[in-house]
Amino acid sequence: MSVRTLVIGFTLVWLSACSQEQTTSSESAAPAEAAAGTGAATPGAAGNVSAERIINADKEPGNWLTTGRTYDEQRYSPLDQINRENVKDLDLAWYWDTGTRRGLEATPLVIDGVMYTTGAWSVVWAHNAKTGELIWSHDPNVPREHARYACCDVVNRGVAAWKGKIFVGTIDGRLVALNATDGKVAWEKVTVDQSKPYTITGAPRVVKDKVVIGNGGAEYGVRGYVTAYNAEDGSEAWRFYTVPGDPSQPFENKAMETAAATWRGSEWWKVGGGGTVWDSMSYDPELNQLYIGVGNGSPWNRYIRSPGGGDNLFLSSIVALNADDGSYVWHYQTTPGDTWDYTAVQHMILADLDINGQKRKVIMQAPKNGFFYVLDRTNGEFISAEAYVPVTWATHVDPETGKPVENPDAHYANDPKKIRPAPYGGHNWHPMTFHPGTGLVYIPVLDLPFKYGQDNAFKYNPTEWNTGVDFGQTIPSSDPDTMIADLKDIKGYLSAWDPVAQKEVWRVQHAMSWNGGLLSTAGGLVFQGRADGHFAAYTADTGQLVWEAPVQVGIIAAPVTYSVDGEQYVAVVAGWGGAYGLASGVPRHHNNVLEEGRLLVYKLGGKQELPKQEVAFIDLPKPPAMETTKEETDKGALLYHQYCSVCHGGGLVSSGSLPDLRYASADTHQAFDAIVRGGAFQGKGMPKFDHVLGEADARAIQAYIVTATNNTIAFCESEYRKNFPELLDTACTRANKAPAPAAQ
Ligand code: CA
Fold first, then answer.
1. For the chain, what is the domain count?
2. What band does 660 get if pLDDT is binned at 50, 70 and 90?
């Protein structure tokens, strides 16, 4: 049997314009009675967060005032009304359907009884945290075509609040300040050059009356930076670039001059260099240091980016800044001269730990590169690092130098190599948590490899991905046994990590990769939503599953907990998507079948029920006949994995958020060239690709879709389907659910 395609789904391919989706109907709701005053502190003014309140957050544990709850971003709550003994009685208090199909990654804030959260396309919602009533919503009306610059879905990770305002960064690079009482715009700033492929997905942080925001875009080619704006009026306070610009121009500061000496060649600054700060920050008010996590280079491939080597500062680094003026204090680079997309933007937790009999002020991170780092946050001194997931690009981190020792076999310039971790990382943006009672850091781990190869035909194109990596290497194997083995090699788990001993204490193995972020509580619990459409609680000391609830959709965001009127709640935003979510199939054989997102809130003895989902599973339909050749379909497979698969799925298996092309109708096939090159579906958000694809190219992609679909049908009718039913359901069927219930 010849089976040419398959299912894998861990392909991370470039380009794309993942914008095809309706949005929520987010007209501002009629202003309802604000729920302010039902919480503990500072009744009256909505969103009235200050430095004093955040620094003293443990005195009002019923609130969740900043994205990591506290400036140290431990995501640990002192609330213990819900605990390991009674968590079995946790049940749904209320839920709210977002009406959007894209990934939901936000951590809600809860301030004095009002919950502020965000959804796809940077929309903000304010709900009564007790009843679920929508108080207001704000849609920043991001132009849908800007989604072509969102490498990893049109997601947003939440808001910041300060002195009556709510701040959100938008996919098209704006920072918007909203009045917390009614959601009306107070001020708005464009934080990027909007002619360049910048995006914002991360939550802002507010320190010293300044809103700090970074950006993304390093897959395409931009120069990363963070900017601080005065919270009151949006005027710019300071900006810190993470990589040097054109060396013929004066450097912005001494740090940029130092950094420039670690880059080689004469072209690197033209593609931007990368180093975007697209997610994590934390802050130590005593040291007055703001920590930013810096991303990968533009392009990924260092032989193209900086021929001749060099560490390429400050890529893949944690950088400490003076919070007053944004000036450089120290840095630590996790992956010098990164060439695998190993960002250090991942969650950074501050804690004071006893290490070798000494109290150390540490910063901890599990960046994509697979090592868990403990650093002295006063000065960036390396303390320790060990692998938290299988790592093949380096043998270890040298304790003397604090630098990784690269494995010579991890270099793909001449030979493509399968390397661990993948560009998704051993850990991505999904927040960790630190429990001061157990002393453990809990990590949502991704465990999957990626086949890297050099793109020898690399040519910079400002509207597409520019990685210098050959995504043709990610086309799924045509050998069925290899496919099955590759599918089995995609895993994820919840790891409880001892940061002092630098070792895993326990692990909960999950069925799939790309599970949700984490919350720990004084109730002795760790909460996590999973890719398989369940929200669960585990004991913090041993990892025993003590509660789980089906929610009908995969969860990737992190939960929070809060209290109103003396009752504790646990909340999570559920909605499948994000980088891996879009580029891979959905684990349909479990419970991840609802395509729309949902905000879910639980309490002890909750009485709400989710609506029943009518789900039918539809086998792959036979595509229209098409005359083609092996040469043409091979070319189509390569082009598809270059330009289409980030949105429509690796190996043609879509997430369901965007169309699965194997199910394309006869009409779609008829109009294929008009859609792909003519822009017939631009109004739906499908951009046209006539600048990179000729008529024969579009036809080759179509030939690949037809041929690969036929081959998958044959494969799905074979004995493999019987032998590996759960593994192959994702590739062989699509869940077709009933229309979504109206948002309540
Ligand atoms: Ca990246």
1. 2
2. confident
Cα dihedral value 603, 609, 614, 620, nearest 10: 0
Q: Quick one: average pLDDT of 459-482?
A: 89
Contact 516, 555 (CB under 8 A): yes
- Please report how the helices 725-732 and 695-716 are oriented relative to each other, as an axis angle in degrees rounded to 10: 140
Average pLDDT over residues 535-546: 98
pLDDT, tens only, 496-521? 999 999 999 999 999 889 999 999 99
CA of 339 to the centre of ligand 1 (A): 11
Q: Report the candidate in 132, 100, 130 with the shortest Cα–Cα distance to residue 25.
A: 100
Cβ neighbourhood burial of 16 (10 Å; 0-12, 13-18, 19+): buried
Centroid of ligand 1 to alpha carbon of 27 (angstroms) = 33
CATH number at residue 619: 1.10.760.10
Q: How far is the CA of 714 from the centre of ligand 1 (A)?
A: 36
Alpha carbon of 341 to ligand 1 centroid (Å) = 5
For residue 278, report the distance from its CA to the centre of ligand 1, in Å: 9
**What kind and span of H or E run contains 695?**
helix 695-716
Do 394 and 369 contact (CB within 8 A), yes or no? yes
CA of 442 to the centre of ligand 1 (A): 23
Q: Round to whole Å and give the CA distance between 144 and 20.
A: 8
**Token representation of residue 142:** 């991001």
pLDDT per position as a tens digit, 303-343: 999 999 999 999 999 999 999 999 999 999 999 999 999 99
Write the DSSP string, 5-27: ----------------------P
What are the Cα distances from residue 278, in Å, to 35, 109, 356, 462, 599? 32, 19, 34, 19, 24
Measured CA to CA, the distance from residue 104 to residue 196 in angstroms comes to: 25
Which residues in 529-557 are b (16+ Cβ under 10 Å) and which e? bbbbbbbbbbbbbebeebbbbebbbbbbb
Domain that holds residue 679: 615-737
Please check whether residues 498 and 562 belong to one and the same domain: yes
Count each helix (H run) and each strand (E run) in the chain, helices first: 12, 41
Cβ(322)–Cβ(292) below 8 Å: no
Residues 6+ away with beta carbon under 8 Å from 683: none
Q: Confirm whether 27 is domain-assigned.
A: no
Among 604, 635, 669, give the residue marking a domain's end: 604
User: Are 543 and 408 within one domain?
Assistant: yes
Closest residue by Cα to residue 337 from 391, 265, 436: 265
Is residue 589 in some structural domain? yes
Rounded to the nearest angstrom, the distance between the alpha carbon of 297 and the centre of ligand 1 is: 8
Query: CA-CA distance, 486 to 476, in Å (whole number)?
Result: 9
Give the Å distance between the CA of 217 and the centre of ligand 1: 8
**What confidence tens digit (pLDDT) does each residue in 31-58 have?**
333 343 334 334 458 999 999 999 999 9
- Dist. CA 115–CA 65, nearest whole Å: 10
Separation of 578 CA from ligand 1 center, angstroms? 12
- For residues 281 and 212, what is the distance between their CA atoms, to the nearest angstrom? 9
Cα 490 to its chain centre, rounded Å, is 18
Which amino acids are annotated catalytic? Answer: 341
Q: Is residue 46 part of a domain?
A: no
The distance from CA 569 to its chain's CA centroid, rounded to whole angstroms, is 25
How high is the pLDDT of residue 361?
A: 98
DSSP string, 116-149: EEE-GGG-EEEEETTT--EEEEE-----GGGGGG
Mean pLDDT for the stretch of residues 175-193: 98
